[in-house]
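Amidohydrolase family protein
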Amino acid sequence: MRAIFLFFIIFVLFSCKQKNANDETGAETKATTELDEIEIIDVHTHFHNDRNYLNDFMKERKMKTVLVDVAKHNVSDSAKVKRSWKDYVALANKHPNLFWLCSSLMGVGIDTPDFAEKEIARLRKEIAEGAKMVKVWKNFGMVTKDKSDKYIQIDDPRLQPIWDFLKEQNIPVMAHIAEPLQAWRPLNPNSPHFGYYSDHPEYHAFNFPKIPSYETIIAARDNWIANNPDLQILCAHVGSMSHDVDMVAERLDKYPNMKVELAARFGDLATQESEKVRAFFEKYQDRILFGTDFGNSGDQANLDSEELAAEREELASDYDRLHTYLSTSDSVLIRGQANVGLSLPTDVLKKIYVTNATDLLKL
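Predicted structure tokens:
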């Protein structure tokens, strides 16, 4: 009788264990399926050229992106601006189901009496061509000067008519103002930005004492946001404060019209404790958008089939790495920074990947 009783207890315990295992497996499968079904909007890309694989690549990943205009001073004539706009318009028109557009604003010519009027006319035309946002770049504060030889800051009152126009049009501004703090520090091989400043020493502010300080440029950015509470502002690259999520949180609490996107700053996030970063993402889940800064360059005609396949594989690997960081607790290496992923809940991921972008851009 005792043997029968012991057998019954063991059978019940084994059955419960099997049931729990099946429940866990079922929950895990469900979670994985939900993740696979999430659509993705990458709000910050630079696909300068078409590729034969782009359609399939994006459809497989349920992904669309925003092509963000690259506007820089012309190398041969600093009074002129070289842009990517026309190429992006052509690419978006060719693939209307893959891409949206983001225009840009530079401060070149700000001293002329009709500067704001001309820029508004241009932006009106580009909004009609499909621009969902307008980008301002780190040239404000770091590169472009007016006739008095002063660096133009983003809160310059001469720009105000343009902000008023964008408010009327309900067009957000993507603001890449300042560089990461590391730009004002000596080159550090352990920094996630070592490669960038090694390749682009012109933006390594440490070497140019006349460039305003990081604090000065961030303060001007904050003042601009405070002065335009009705303007929707998406601070690119985690607001150039990606080294410290507490610093970002302080601004998000202070400025209700401010959001941030993540492009090219996952390495900075990975230098901080994952539990702390996860808490930041969960608290501000309605104010964070997914972005990468990924793109391409060069005509496809100059690439053979193996090179195209390698390019696609690298792009897939780059996206997978960021997805691993956001959605799992696996070990991950991003820009030389080793950490574990954030394992964000599916509902938070949906907001970061798609909902926040559709709400901001009225998609």
